[in-house]
Design a protein that fits this description.
Layout lengths: L1 H37 L3 E2 L3 E2 L2 E6 L3 E7 L9 E4 L4 E13 L11 E10 L10 E5 L2 E7 L2
C-alpha cells in the first residue's frame, strides 16, 4: 500500500513539474515577444531590424525575413548556435528619418541587422536559404 501511494505521489509530482516547465516556457516566449514588439526597430549605429516570422512545419522550422530595398548579393545568414541566427544585409541606398520625419533626422541607415532566437534547437548544417524579391526564406530541420 505504501509503495503504491509513493508511486502515485511521484507520478503527480512529475506531472506537475512537467506542466510547470511547459507553462514557464510559454510565459518566457510571450514575454520575449512583448519585449521585442516594444523595442525600436532601428539602431543609432545605422541599421534597421527587419520584420520576420517563424513557422513550425513539424520536422522543420521556416524563418521568413522581409528585407525590402536590400542588396540581395549582400545578404548574410549566419547561425550563431543551434538556437540563434544572425541576418545582415546592406541597403541598396542609405535611408534616413529625414525622409519621413524631422525628429532623429540625422540618423542614417545603411543595412539590416538582427539576431533571431529560434523556439527549438535546429541543425544549421542542413539549412536551406532562398531569397526571392527581398524576402529570405530559411528552412532548417529541428535537431
Amino acid at each position: 500500500m505504501s509503495d503504491e501511494l509513493d508511486r502515485v505521489f511521484r507520478e503527480m509530482e512529475d506531472y506537475i513539474a512537467r506542466r510547470l516547465r511547459e507553462k514557464l516556457a510559454e510565459l518566457y516566449s510571450e514575454m520575449h515577444s512583448l519585449a521585442s514588439m516594444m523595442s525600436p526597430m532601428w539602431h543609432h549605429e545605422g541599421y534597421l531590424e527587419p520584420l520576420y516570422a517563424i513557422k513550425d512545419l513539424g520536422t522543420h522550422i521556416a524563418i521568413y525575413i522581409d528585407l525590402p530595398c536590400a542588396e540581395e548579393s549582400s545578404i548574410d545568414v549566419h547561425f550563431i548556435d543551434r538556437r540563434r541566427i544572425e541576418i545582415r544585409a546592406k541597403l541598396r541606398e542609405s535611408l534616413s528619418f529625414s525622409d519621413w520625419s524631422t525628429r532623429f533626422s540625422s540618423t542614417k541607415f545603411s543595412e539590416y541587422r538582427t539576431t533571431i532566437a529560434l523556439p527549438v534547437e535546429v541543425d544549421p548544417s542542413r539549412a536551406k536559404v532562398r531569397v526571392k524579391r527581398g524576402v529570405v526564406e530559411i528552412v532548417v530541420p529541428k535537431a
